[in-house]
Structure formats: structure tokens, C-alpha cells
Amino acid sequence: MQMKKISALFLSLFLLTSVFSSVHAAEKAMSVWLNGEQIRFSTSEPIVEKGVTLVPMRPLLEKLDVKLNWNEATRTASVAKEGLTLSLQIGNTNATANGKTVKLAAAPKQISNVTYVPLRFVAETTGYKVAWNQSLRQVTLTSEQQQDGSRGFLWKVENKGNTVYLLGSIHVAKKGMYPLRPEIENAFKAADYLGVEVDLTTIVPEEAQKLVMDLGTYKDGTTLKDHISPETYKKVAAFLKANEYPENTFDNFKPWIVTQNIANLQIAEAGYQPEIGIDMYLIQNAKQVKKPVVSLESMESQFQMFNNFSDPLQEKLLLQTLEPASDEAPAPGEGIDILTKMWIEGDDAILAELTKASAWDAEYYKGMLSDRNEEMAEKIKGYLNSDKKETYLVVVGALHMLGDHGVVPLLEKDGFTVERQ
What we know:
Blueprint: H1 2-12, H2 15-19, E1 31-34, E2 37-38, E3 47-49, E4 52-56, H3 57-63, E5 67-71, E6 76-81, E7 84-89, E8 94-97, E9 100-103, E10 109-111, E11 114-118, H4 119-125, E12 129-133, E13 138-142, E14 153-159, E15 162-169, H5 182-190, E16 193-196, H6 205-216, H7 230-242, H8 255-269, H9 278-288, E17 293-295, H10 299-307, H11 311-322, H12 332-345, H13 348-357, H14 362-384, E18 391-397, H15 407-413, E19 418-420
Parallel strand pairs: 1-13, 15-18, 16-17, 16-18
Antiparallel strand pairs: 1-2, 3-4, 4-11, 5-6, 6-7, 7-8, 8-9, 10-11, 12-13, 14-15, 14-19
Helix pairs in contact: 1-12, 1-13, 6-10, 7-11, 8-11, 14-15
């Protein structure tokens, strides 16, 4: 049940998530990430003074796994880690590291009884690489073991002087998934074209909304109640009530639309954002350097796929979204955390297990994966058989890559040599 639910969640986080989400996000709060995990500072958030980031001391040191001794009389923090001793004093721009005096860019300070320390100095002194991403307003701390960046799932295919890099993506992300490992960034730089499922930056919101209303609403006088069981409808109403929406909010919509809207709320609550998903990150980078972006699919084809699912399948997917967390079925946030960890580590075993679990329903597997994979593979073969000697980076959901009907096996069956990078 766990892998079935996670695989369905993984595949649903695609175009709809971005279309239904606001692309005009408010100014992002600063965040601090350690090896892909966000450091939570409770109510005391990081601050910036004269270009120096100061963070609450205890949450930081706990995550850095160092021992802290606090001397209230001298207002001094002594930090110990294997091979290191460090001392910082409130109001003092001089610190000591292994007995040597070090000049700080800013002195530690106390605000409302919370001790703040310079983030970069403490992190670098304890052995972490520090990076700042202005667009994400994110500070990333990376241990030596993790400094290669998120691994993801990358393959390379060559034919007739053409090269196609295949990147299995995850469509929503947390900031801690960045940076990507150099091989992915280098594949992007080498590419003449970026290929994606759909170039979301070309979608006109009004057109997307019209298509959703045309396909996703009932026009025959029926409502959601007429297409799902009373028990399922009660669960939808309970979800809406718990989230302070009117219980009839979704009455005019088909189950596939309801499923996506509920998933969007769950995703946002878990701290994930489609606008910084791997696809969008690379699309935005391509736009900045004027690299052409090509779509392997269309907004219409993806919407039609969901709309063509039978009522029973649509209800099954809706119920999976509404299922409470259990030992067998994780909460949506926990499920996406599993996907994120899988992607950061490039865990083939988990990806293979999720791909296998996607076959839980024949109609679902055919519409969501096998049919689409064959169409994607045909377009990729076109790139490889061209006489133009061009390079592509093709980025599609990671679950499209493996399995009996995955893009990689389909290319191999046609004689192409696909190498994992």
C-alpha cells in the first residue's frame, strides 16, 4: 500500500500542480538547509545584519551534531567536535578556533533571550560548505560526504553524432534539493535544447483555466455526488471542512480535479513548491541563457489523459489522496519526503520499486505511463536519428524512465546504448 500510494502521488505531481498554483509567489522567507533537510528555528528566524546571516545557536548546533557548553557568567558558548574546539562570546567579534583567535564579520548577540551566531563562520569552521542562492533565498550547508549535490537519475545516449541526456525528474521540490550534482549541470550546459514534458512558462493561465472548466466540470446536470460513493463524498466534505472551505466547494468538479486540488493543499502544507521543481529550475535557467525549450507533450494531452480515466479509477485516486496516514500509507508530506530523499540520493532500488508499484491498476498504468512512455521514446529516437548532430537534455518524471515500458528500456530494445551517468 505504501509504495502504491507514493507512486500515485509521484505521478500526480506534474503539470496540474503548477497550473493550479500561483506563479506569483510572495517574497520568500530565508531558509537554511543541511544536506537536503531544512533546519527549523521555531519562532526565532534567521536574520541578516550588514550582509551577515545570524541564526539561533542551539537549533543550528544540534543539527551540526556538536557539543555545546554555555557559560552564563561570561556569556560564552564553547563548542566541541572531534578535532575542533570553538568559543564565541556575546558582543565579541573575536572568536577562538583550536586556540587561535579569529575575527568575526559580526559578533554573536542575544535577542529576546535567544543567542544568535554567525552562520557561515560556525558552519565552515565545523566542516561544512556554505552556499547562498539569491533566487530561493536559501542558505545551503553541505557536509563533505554530500558536497557533490543531489544525484537524481541521469542517463546518456549517443547516435549519429547526436547526444541525448535523460534526466528523471521530480516535479515539486524543497529548496534543500539544490544544488544539483555537476554532471546534471554540465549536461544542461552542453545541451543545444532542453526537452520537458510541457514548457509551463508558455502556458496562458486563462487558457489553462478554460480547459480545466471545459474538461473538469459536469455539464449534464450531475454533480460530484452522482459519480462517487456517499462514503467518499463524506470524506471530501470532511477534508474541506477541516481546511475551512464550504463542504460543497468541489460539487461541480470531476474527481480528477478534486484529487489534484486536495493534493495541492497537502503539498503546500508539507513545504513543497512546484515553481522550484527540477523541471521548472531547468526551464527557468534555459530561458535565462536563451536555450530553446521543446515540449514532448501538451497541456491538453495531459488534461485529457486524466479526464479519460473511468469514474471508478478517478474515485480510487481520490480515495488514495484522502487516506489518513498509517503504518502502511504515509501522510502526503511524508510520502513526498520519501520521494525527495530518493531523488537526492539517486536511489535506483526505490525508483524501481515505485515504478513496479505503478502497475497497481491496468487502466492507470496504461494511461499514466506505458502509452506516454512510448510517445516520449519515439520523439527521443527522432532526436538521436537526426542528421543535425545536436545535444538534448530531456527532463521527464523519473517514473517514466525504468520498468518494462520505461523510456530507457524502450530505447535499449531499439538498439540504442543507454549509459547511466
